[in-house]
């Protein structure tokens, strides 16, 4: 009798202990329902590098509103590398208090009070690329800290990650964000090394497909141990990736260099149009407090943004490429299409495009542009001007390093 009683107690306590110990299942999948169209916002890195502080961030948020950028869809204000101070004796990360004296929570409150969202940056390794404390070993603690501050977006970099496997490392931070409970967009910044487009869709909301962008239209910058890439070089690195992108999971060809002083107005247009055609995140990287009209006109063109933000979320494709002249198509909702004629060459190029003779087919997403059975109205996306219909061939010219982007509407 006594023995039976003891046995019963043992079984009971064991099942209690096991029940408690084992009923927590780690969730390695990202928050769903975020960025169903490509994220739009601003990031500090391209223009300010490590020179970030709360004054800049607040003024940028103010400028995003006063410039009209918020009205056309820009939402995220993302602080990149170098906001960090030290970890305290309990391991909690703190911002650099000289640069962010009011703390991150107060800054997030300010950003939220303006109807915008705040993004932050960390790194899967021991240190960020800028040598600040990384999140390795502190993933759950950092995620909790960010959630407590009210962060909405995390860019997670890949410096100093020796011995780590990318998919596992990004799954860890996803699980940590999940556990912290505040929905955050996860931007995987792994530079495309370990094919993030294959495992990234389940783990994060966007993933870098290449190394860093360099502020030039067509050049490669050699830093010795690594290279950064001009706008056209980045564009070429997107080949073969479009099937991996879609609502909530985007290829990220890096942040915009528009308005940073090195591209001509035509190159700025080409950069913006092509990022729209690629359904890429539109993360501006210039000084929003000090933009000229040309920059603002490019960044806020509603037709180009509509191409980027189309609900189907289909990444465009290169249809042809001859002597530095490329034609790109992107299927849009309601059977409409965006088309871009990109002139990468040093001289102007003539176009004579017979819509009815061309066979435009998107084999991956099963879309077909058939100008023989459907007459599309043509609109110049940059100017908004109507350009007739697809019944007639398009005859025009594109200047060197410029682009013509059209919207074909049924
Ligand atoms: C890496 C990233 C960049 C930027 C810097 C910050 O190079 O790819 O986008 O975040 O680190 O140090």
Write the layout of secondary structure elements.
Elements: H1 2-22, E1 40-43, H2 45-48, H3 54-66, E2 76-78, E3 84-87, E4 93-95, H4 103-113, E5 117-123, H5 139-149, E6 153-157, H6 166-180, E7 185-188, H7 196-203, E8 206-208, E9 220-222, E10 227-229, H8 231-236, E11 250-252, H9 265-277, E12 282-284, H10 293-299, H11 302-308, E13 317-322, E14 325-331, E15 337-343, E16 349-353, E17 360-362, E18 367-369, E19 377-380, E20 386-389, E21 394-398, E22 402-409
Parallel strand pairs: 1-2, 1-12, 2-5, 5-6, 6-7, 7-8, 8-11
Antiparallel strand pairs: 3-4, 9-10, 13-14, 14-15, 15-22, 16-21, 17-18, 19-20, 19-22
Helix pairs in contact: 5-6, 6-7, 9-10, 9-11
Residues 45, 80-81, 128-130, 157, 189, 212 line the site of alpha-D-galactopyranose.
Domains, number: 2
Quaternary state, please?
single chain
* Gross morphology: globular
CATH topology of the largest domain: TIM Barrel
Secondary structure tally, helices: 11
Tell me about this structure.
The protein has 410 residues and is an alpha/beta fold. The protein has 2 domains: 40-308, Aldolase class I (TIM Barrel, Alpha-Beta Barrel); 317-409, Golgi alpha-mannosidase II (Immunoglobulin-like), CATH 2.60.40. The chain contains 11 helices and 22 strands. It has helices at 2-22, 45-48, 54-66, 103-113, 139-149, 166-180, 196-203, 231-236, 265-277, 293-299, 302-308; strands spanning 40-43, 76-78, 84-87, 93-95, 117-123, 153-157, 185-188, 206-208, 220-222, 227-229, 250-252, 282-284, 317-322, 325-331, 337-343, 349-353, 360-362, 367-369, 377-380, 386-389, 394-398, 402-409. An 8-stranded parallel β-sheet has the order 11-8-7-6-5-2-1-12. It has a 6-stranded antiparallel β-sheet with strand order 13-14-15-22-19-20, with helices on one face. A two-stranded antiparallel sheet has the order 3-4. The chain is globular and about 70 Å long. Mean pLDDT is 95; it is low at 11-19. The chain binds alpha-D-galactopyranose. Alpha-D-galactopyranose (GLA) is lined by residues 45, 80-81, 128-130, 157, 189, 212.
């Amino acid at each position: 009798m006594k023995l039976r009683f003891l046995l019963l107690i043992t079984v009971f306590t064991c099942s209690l202990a096991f029940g408690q110990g084992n009923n927590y299942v780690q969730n390695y999948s990202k928050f769903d329902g975020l960025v169903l169209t490509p994220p739009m916002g601003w990031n500090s890195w391209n223009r300010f590098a490590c020179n970030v502080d709360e004054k800049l961030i607040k003024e940028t948020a103010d400028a995003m509103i006063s410039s009209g950028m918020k009205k056309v869809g820009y939402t995220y204000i993302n602080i990149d590398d170098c906001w960090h101070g030290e970890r305290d004796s309990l391991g909690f990360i703190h911002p650099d208090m000289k640069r962010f004296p009011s703390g991150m929570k107060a800054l997030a409150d300010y950003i939220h009070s303006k109807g915008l969202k705040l993004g932050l940056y960390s790194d899967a390794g021991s240190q960020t690329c800028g040598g600040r404390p990384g999140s390795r070993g502190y993933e759950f603690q950092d995620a909790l800290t960010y959630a407590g501050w009210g962060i909405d977006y995390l860019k997670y970099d890949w410096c100093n990650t020796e011995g780590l496997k990318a998919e596992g490392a990004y799954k860890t931070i996803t699980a940590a964000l999940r556990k912290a409970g505040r929905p955050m967009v996860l931007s995987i910044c792994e530079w495309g090394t370990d094919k993030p487009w294959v495992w990234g869709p389940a783990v994060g909301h966007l993933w870098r497909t290449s190394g860093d962008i360099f502020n030039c239209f067509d050049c490669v910058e050699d830093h010795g141990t690594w290279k950064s890439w001009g706008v056209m070089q980045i564009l070429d690195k997107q080949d073969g990736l479009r099937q991996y992108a879609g609502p909530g999971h985007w290829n990220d060809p890096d942040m915009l260099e528009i308005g940073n002083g090195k591209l001509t107005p035509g190159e700025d247009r080409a950069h913006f149009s092509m990022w729209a055609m690629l359904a890429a995140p539109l993360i501006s990287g210039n000084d929003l407090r000090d933009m000229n009209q040309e920059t603002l006109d490019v960044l806020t063109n509603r037709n180009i943004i509509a191409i980027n933000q189309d609900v189907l979320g289909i990444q465009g494709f290169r249809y042809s490429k001859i002597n530095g002249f490329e034609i790109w198509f992107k299927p849009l909702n309601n059977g409409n299409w965006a088309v871009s004629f990109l002139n990468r060459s040093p001289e102007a190029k003539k176009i004579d495009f017979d819509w009815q003779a061309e066979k435009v087919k998107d084999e991956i997403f099963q879309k077909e542009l058939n100008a023989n059975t459907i007459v599309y109205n043509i609109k110049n996306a940059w100017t908004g001007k109507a350009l007739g219909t697809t019944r007639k061939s398009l005859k025009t010219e594109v200047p060197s390093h410029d682009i013509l982007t059209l919207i074909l509407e049924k």
